[in-house]
Amino acid sequence: MKKIFLSESEMPKQWYNLMADLPTPLEPPLDPSTNQPMAPEKLAVLFPHALLEQEMSSKRWIDIPEEILNIYNIWRPSPLVRADRLEKFLDTPAKIYFKNEGVSPAGSHKPNTAVAQVYYNAKEGIKKLTTETGAGQWGSSLCFAAQYFGIDVVVYMVKVSYEGKPYRRVMMETWGGKVIPSPSNLTESGRNILKKDPNSPGSLGIAISEAVEEALGSNGKAHYALGSVLNHVMIHQSIIGLEAQKQFEKIGDYPDIIVASAGGGSNFAGLAFPFAFDKISGKKPKTRLVAIEPSACPSLTEGKYEYDFGDTAGFTPLLKMYTLGHDFVPPSIHSGGLRYHGMSPIVSNLYNDKLIEATSVSQTDVFKAAIDFARTEGLIAAPESAHSIAGAIREALKCKQTGEAKTILFNLSGHGFLDLGSYQSYLEGKLKD
Amino acid sequence: MKKIFLSESEMPKQWYNLMADLPTPLEPPLDPSTNQPMAPEKLAVLFPHALLEQEMSSKRWIDIPEEILNIYNIWRPSPLVRADRLEKFLDTPAKIYFKNEGVSPAGSHKPNTAVAQVYYNAKEGIKKLTTETGAGQWGSSLCFAAQYFGIDVVVYMVKVSYEGKPYRRVMMETWGGKVIPSPSNLTESGRNILKKDPNSPGSLGIAISEAVEEALGSNGKAHYALGSVLNHVMIHQSIIGLEAQKQFEKIGDYPDIIVASAGGGSNFAGLAFPFAFDKISGKKPKTRLVAIEPSACPSLTEGKYEYDFGDTAGFTPLLKMYTLGHDFVPPSIHSGGLRYHGMSPIVSNLYNDKLIEATSVSQTDVFKAAIDFARTEGLIAAPESAHSIAGAIREALKCKQTGEAKTILFNLSGHGFLDLGSYQSYLEGKLKD
Questions:
Q1: pTM of the entire structure?
Q2: Residue A317: what pLDDT?
Q3: Domain presence at residue A31
Q4: Looking at chain B, which residue has its C-alpha nearest residue A375?
């Protein structure tokens, strides 16, 4: 069997919340004006109460509302796929599986949380959401989801992506969204950046500042939505790993190594956290959970574990996380979705506790892996997801050396149909590390 | 249930060949030099024997080789999806289903025949295939398939698409293909066209001439592959309709109306022919089979039923088909895959026998339907496939008027992630009919 499917009725009905099981409790977000734990009320200008409740929740299982399941079933459960042709190509004794999140209408795992966030905002009467997007995966996911609940979306898109990925913008507009290149002159934060560098390529941090600023200035009419980093996002993404667990159960296997790329952390968390539960609880203590980051933006492997802002301008609470510094502007690598200075506090917490590993890969290694994958498994992966492929290949080649027939699972978080420009750069030898 | 899946083991193991059941026998292809039926040997310079045998076959069921099933299972069986949100949006009593062929790695139904053609060529020792492509769907499918059998592919891509859809070209190159804008100065046929019009946007007919010319001049080293029109292509595509029949059986329903866009005819044939068998055999005589073509290139609805060349330069045999004339150069509409002057001889035969219907839709109606579909069902359709959506919506709105709860099935032959440029033109109001 090449693909392991679940029926819609087998789709998990609850999300998993790893906060219930963290060996070291999460340190709270701090109010930058007082350096004291942030009062939830202060965040209520940006987020609906239901999401703030999830953000602080220590409940292990959280019911997925029917309305969300109804949208999920447009594309979920997503298939678990055996990469048997890649195995043969690598001549490895390892078994390689991937969860294909690229089958969603927006083409990535991001709608898992977009649908949830839109739902809870709509339920509390919000009619407009602001957000940022790097590669466009998150922005398009939010626009896709918002149309089902009558919410307008304004997306600040990192300028280098806005210019390099026009199709992503059109996709957002097709679903009714409004897209603004960031830094823009529509916000104070954008204008400040442009004053210093009129040719700024932008960054996720800057775009977050702009989106937050617009929501803050809306007198409660607009909320803000974040596609990664925050705890509630990790909760929503857990459906990926929960499905994978059911799928492995069907074939009587269990992954020894789980590999996923990590930008803000939601793609890694989505796949790995349900397995982290098995690991922490002692059910599967030896499973390795490996986060892969770009060597050009290595927050886990080279950042510091300290309180930092989530954005560039300093509007957000301070989060305890691995960070390269909130004013870090990464080079314009093609994996826009991984150009973030920080890392999800929960992922950071696990890394600091040595419950997960992290490693980085160079851009050319990533595209080499993407081409090998396309020429064996047939699928064109997003550059972000190709980090996972590169990581999985690295593990599979270790197995070849040791002769161990390990089971490797990676997250194919999205397809690369809208990233073929970067494939072109690689194929033409123009891509630098 | 939103999506009806089949397991890999439920995938049909035989293709259906409608030639076995045509009420009026198909008229043979003619040799243009003699006006006599073409001797199969003469075609053997272009096609492998196994495909020529299928081309002339009157066997109703043809076994699908294991090697082909093994590649099909990368993405097949494809889901049958209930478009319940579109139904609600249209406020129609009709039930609307679509077969989603966009889930293939190349993003369309074309790999169904690409894999088969490559397999049979490889089995007979061929190492190189030449072909043409319009929108790029066929070319990319052939490149995708060829990599599994060690075959090199040279694709002549209609110049207007080559320039307007650079990502499609990169996709072909990602899978190892070589892409040449057509008309090119590499062939006599290309040079002749460029002499008359150096700015020729190209057409499928011209690109076919170039690809055939290269194969003919290869001294038997290269064969040629065609993505539509020919009988063997229709046979391979029958897997779409055969799967759909099994899927409808699972939910205890049967389509009253089947709608699919028609360029060369393979998309329509793939979905409709197994149902045409039910209709001709009297099992379901009232099912309507409706081909949708662009009003800018209306071969069935405005062409003549006569012998014509399949290409522009006159290299191919003469085929009895509905045609706008082999020198017809359609306007540069966005549905590159539907810009073909002729129509599959079998589809033409059925139309002439009034067993199927045909109707045309304008480009703006097509994109309006695509947007309505994206904003209800979430999926971004290829412009070619959006013709089917427009046709299905037209039928659903008729049901709204009559109050009939008919079951409509259409073919979503491909996704539109690489066609967002044309969505942009539509959204910006720049698209003309």
A1: 0.96
A2: 93
A3: no
A4: B175
The Cα B223–Cα B219 span in angstroms is: 10
Specify the pLDDT at position B230.
Answer: 94
Asked if B375 and A147 come within 8 Å (Cβ–Cβ), the reply is yes
Give the Cα separation of A413 and B2 in Å (integer). 22
- Structural domain including B188 reads 46-63+110-231
- Name the domain boundary from B169, B204, B231: B231
Task: Suggest the residue from B67, B420, B431 to mutate for an interface test with chain A (most A CBs closer than 10 A).
Answer: B420
- For every residue of chain B, which 3-state class applies, written as one string? CCEECCCHHHCCCEEECHHHHCCCCCCCCEECCCCEECCHHHHCCCCCHHHHHHHHCCCCEEECCHHHHHHHCCCCCCCEEECHHHHHHHCCCCEEEEEEHHHCCCCECCHHHHHHHHHHHHHCCCCEEEEEECCCHHHHHHHHHHCCCCCEEEEEEEHHHHHHCHHHHHHHHHCCCEEEEECCCCCHHHHHHHHHCCCCCCCHHHHHHHHHHHHHCCCCCEEECCCCCCHHHHHHHHHHHHHHHHHHHHHCCCCCEEEEECCCCHHHHHHHHHHHHHHHCCCCCCCEEEEEEECCCCHHHHCEEEEEECCCCCCCCEEEEEECCCCCCCCCCCCHHHCCCCCCHHHHHHHHCCCCEEEEECHHHHHHHHHHHHHHCCCCECHHHHHHHHHHHHHHHHHHHHCCCCEEEEEECEECHHHHHHHHHHHCCCCCC
A255 and A187 in one domain? no
Which of the listed residues A231, A257, A291 is the one where a domain comes to its end?
Answer: A231
Binary contact (A375, B176; C-beta < 8 A): yes
Query: pLDDT by residue (tens digit) across A310-367?
Result: 988 888 899 999 999 998 987 777 776 787 899 999 999 999 999 999 999 999 999 9
Written as six digits, the tokens of B272 are: 């409709």
Do A255 and A164 share a structural domain?
A: no
User: Per-residue pLDDT averaged across A287-297, rounded?
Assistant: 96
B306/B347 same-domain check: yes
ipTM: 0.96
Better-predicted residue by pLDDT, A51 or B311:
A51
In chain B, the residue whose alpha carbon lies closest to the alpha carbon of A371 is B174
Which residues make Cβ contacts (< 8 Å) with residue A139, sequence separation at least 6? A131, A132, A133, A153, A155, A157, A168, A172, A177, A179
What pLDDT is attached to residue B351? Answer: 98
One domain, residues A216 and A264: no
The pLDDT assigned to A71 comes to 98
Contacts of A420 in chain B (CB under 8 A): 166-167, 170-171, 174, 418
- A357/A217 same-domain check: no
Is it the case that residue A236 has pLDDT exceeding 80? yes
CATH number at residue B177: 3.40.50.1100
Residue A34, both tokens: 């007082």
Q: Does the structure show a pLDDT above 80 at A230?
A: yes
What digits encode the pLDDT tens for the residues A135-189?
789 999 999 999 999 999 999 999 988 987 889 999 999 999 999 999 999 999 9
Find out whether A263 and A339 touch, Cβ atoms under 8 Å: yes
- The pLDDT assigned to A160 comes to 87
Domain count, chain B: 2
Cβ distance A420 to B147 less than 8 Å, yes or no, reads no
Mean pLDDT by 10 residues, chain B (433 residues): 97 98 96 92 93 96 98 98 98 98 97 98 98 92 97 95 88 97 97 96 89 94 95 98 98 98 95 98 97 95 96 90 91 76 96 98 96 98 96 98 98 95 92 78
**Shortest distance, CA A206 to any CA of chain B (angstroms):** 27
**Residue A40 is assigned to a structural domain of this protein:** no
* Interchain pair B173, A2: CB under 8 A: no
What is the percentage of chain A residues whose pLDDT exceeds 90? 89
